[in-house]
Amino acid sequence: MARSAEKRGKDETAAAEKKVKSTGKAASGARGGITAPVTPSAELAEIVGKDDLPRSEVVSKVWEYIKKHDLQDAKDKRQINADDKLEKIFGKKSASMFEMNKHLSAHLSAKKA
């Protein structure tokens, strides 16, 4: 018989709490990768703010900025036409939405533990 999502969630929580008690270390899970806090560079901080944010939140704030300033190409929405602030990050006047994360990575550093 399959467990319900609620039952599975309770079981996983109980297992995590048991691990924390036995090892004294935090349970692993969604605390790394895209959810780990990162520090933006000075150039990127002009757009997303200077506070440490999860990588997913940085990408969301950059998209908010792009849409607010109408920087998507009218003919090809996948293309982003950089203004002065985004040009500092992209290193060029135009970038595709697929290469945007590559350019953002160069302006993010992992938060020191």
From TrEMBL:
<feature type="domain" description="DM2">
    <location>
        <begin position="33"/>
        <end position="110"/>
    </location>
</feature>
<protein>
    <submittedName>
        <fullName>SWIB/MDM2 domain-containing protein</fullName>
    </submittedName>
</protein>
<dbReference type="InterPro" id="IPR036885">
    <property type="entry name" value="SWIB_MDM2_dom_sf"/>
</dbReference>
<dbReference type="InterPro" id="IPR019835">
    <property type="entry name" value="SWIB_domain"/>
</dbReference>
<dbReference type="Pfam" id="PF02201">
    <property type="entry name" value="SWIB"/>
</dbReference>
<feature type="region of interest" description="Disordered">
    <location>
        <begin position="1"/>
        <end position="40"/>
    </location>
</feature>
<dbReference type="InterPro" id="IPR003121">
    <property type="entry name" value="SWIB_MDM2_domain"/>
</dbReference>
<feature type="compositionally biased region" description="Basic and acidic residues">
    <location>
        <begin position="1"/>
        <end position="20"/>
    </location>
</feature>
